[in-house]
Amino acid sequence: MISDHLLGAEHITWWIFGALQVALFIAFTRNAKGRSSSLLKTVVCIAGFYAAWRTIEYIHLDFIYDFTLKLLLGTIMLLIWKRLHVVESLYYSSIFLLCIEIGKIISVDICMQPLYNVLSTLPELLITGLWIVIVIAVAGLLLWLVSRWTFVPGIEKLSLKQYLLVLMPLIPYIVIRSSTYAYNNDDHALYIRLVALMLILSFWTIIMVVMNAKSLADQLTKIELVEMESILKERNKQYEAEKTALDAAYRQYHDLKHYVSALEAIRDTGQPSEEMTRNLDQLISEFRTSIEPTALSVKTGNIYLDIVLTHKKRECTQKGLRIAMYADGSRLGFMSGFDIASVFGNILDNAIEAAQQVESKDVRDIELSVIYQNDLAFIRCSNPFKGTIDADRDMPKTTKPDSGHGYGLPNITRIIQRYGGECSWHTSDNVFTLTACIPIPVD
User: In 3D, which of 371, 405, 366, 375 has the Cα closest to residue 389?
Assistant: First the structure.
């Protein structure tokens, strides 16, 4: 076997091979949607990962133990470095190791073993170097190809049961791959058939794992989008109904103001008694107070934004929250009323729900602003929250089960990105701040 002519495990070339595998692993998993780590932590994680990986290869255990330990090591690396879920880390590590194993099979059994008579005369260093180059090249190409279907939206939302079902084909693969029967017999024809079978099994396993995971992720994403659209349509109907009602109420309010003015004129003419004047003043005051709430209390220059902010301002008042709004909606005409209601409704729903959890009424303040700089619209909302917020993927998740952050944010981001904008968020002193930037189309 050509593998008998490879250098010993202590040679420096295997340290280089280990470094190349670690570099492939880092490059492959960089697209995983986890939390970014500091440069120092990243360097420490990679160094520890490399040392442990090289140790496993140096010990040179049987395949089943070697594969299992590397799978565990890759999972731990992603847990610490990217802060992914355990099963998600296990999934990415499995894909990586399958590609490495396919590279090894192709290198030894497909490319080099048929040329045994020629290669066996070469120095061991050259044979080992050729083996490493082929393995890394094949594994790198496979990882690049499968990454298109591995890092898809929704993959991080799979449950533990779904991930375990997806990874189930690994069990028979590990058992069959650990068999050395193909390499311990002298029947060349049988060896060729077994190698072909092993290669087919390897490709089939990786296709099954990746495609099943992608299919489940697509289904979850579609279900989530359908639910989101349903919620948004219902909310939009509510705002449209409120807009119609407010329009009618505003017309009524406008007419009634003239009526009140007429009453005031009657009071001021002639010489009514002091008691009549006092009663008339009280009636006018109560009448004016009763009709005032029917008007839009927030006017931004955009009727849809007026309705949403008026509604949310009243909700804050009812729930004992203070809200400060500095909103100019005059240049938001490029957004549909549906999207304006969805974005600002979700932003303020999250802010109100989170602020309600804060026990101290002195800090239950919400601030919302809409400003412009050149041809960019900036939306900023800040609110207090209770507990801690952890960045899970690109969206914040609070440790408080009843707090609002996380709910609706994917939908906000999706709408903002549809207009070519971006969303970002940060926390400071238990204040959560969401910022959205949207380019304003130039007519």
Answer: 405
Task: Give the whole-angstrom CA distance, residue 367 versus residue 341.
Answer: 18
Distance, CA of 394 to CA of 412 (rounded, Å): 13
- Residue intervals of the chain classified under CATH 3.30.565.10 are 299-443
CA-CA-CA-CA torsion for 307, 309, 310, 312, nearest 10 degrees? 120
Residue type at 21 in one-letter notation: Q
Place of tokens 């060729």: 192
H-helix segments, 82-123: 86-105, 116-119
CB-neighbour burial class of residue 385 (10 A; exposed 0-12, middle 13-18, buried 19+): buried
Cβ atoms of 170 and 209 closer than 8 Å = yes
Other C-beta atoms closer than 10 Å to the C-beta of 216 total: 19
What's the rounded Cα separation, in Å, for the pair 83 and 71? 16
Residue 183 has pLDDT above 60, yes or no: no
List, for residues 99-132, the tens digit of each pLDDT value.
Answer: 998 998 888 888 888 887 888 888 888 988 999 9
Q: Can you state the angle between helices 124-150 and 86-105, rounded to 10 degrees?
A: 140
Distance CA 163, CA 428 (A): 35
pLDDT tens profile 317-341: 888 898 999 999 999 989 888 788 8
**Assessment of whether the complete model's pTM goes beyond 0.70:** no
Specify the pLDDT at position 141: 93
Pure H helices in 178-331: 188-268, 274-291, 303-318
Q: What is the mean pLDDT of the segment spanning 69-84?
A: 90
Kindly report the CATH class assigned to 299-443: alpha beta
